Description:
By secondary structure, the chain is an alpha+beta fold. The chain has helices at residues 22-27, 34-37, 43-50, 98-111, 131-136, and strands at residues 12-15, 56-63, 66-74, 81-89, 118-123, 140-146, 149-155.
Amino acid sequence: MTNTDVGPGAVVSLREVTAETVGVVCELSDTLVEHQKRMVAPNAVSIAQAHFEPKAWFRAIYADDTPVGFVMLYDDPEKPHCYLWRFMIGGPYQKKGLGRQAMNLVLDQARSRPNATEMTLSYVPIEGNPEPFYRRMGFEPTGDVEGGEVVMRRSL
Ligand SMILES: CC(C)(COP(=O)(O)OP(=O)(O)OC[C@H]1O[C@@H](n2cnc3c(N)ncnc32)[C@H](O)[C@@H]1OP(=O)(O)O)[C@@H](O)C(=O)NCCC(=O)NCCS
């Protein structure tokens, strides 16, 4: 259910997904508009994949005490880059500055890794893609395209 009280002043945090919250975190994927659903796997799929990938790190994104999004990293502690595997803010919570706050926390998480010096990501280059958001967050295209997705990076 949408919490209409969530606004730009909310405090954003990254919290572990629990037995109590996994349902609502998965339902956030249903709140994306159709073209956005083509840009990020459903959270249920991400959480399932994470259970078979020891290098996956995932959290629910909260605004105050409301789950509003999901993030997953592919985090190899021996590698210099941390890969932003999945990132989404539910439709009713977008364009309130929550994605920016959450991304800053994700960057802090990556900086806490001993060998990480950069974050990489890739996006599906269709209409309405999140490149402008990522550019605002300091990412730049590397010039690489992998599996049809445009690769971006930024230093940590
Ligand atoms: C991309 C996404 C995470 C942005 O989250 P958000 O909470 O709406 O972003 P914010 O409100 O924090 O926006 C920060 C800035 O980026 C801009 N921005 C955000 N999404 C944008 C978009 N799709 N196109 C252009 N600008 C965008 C905002 O206007 C804002 O600009 P400002 O600095 O001028 O104020 C969200 O739209 C989303 O989850 N999209 C669907 C899933 C997706 O594409 N995930 C990425 C897969 S690679």
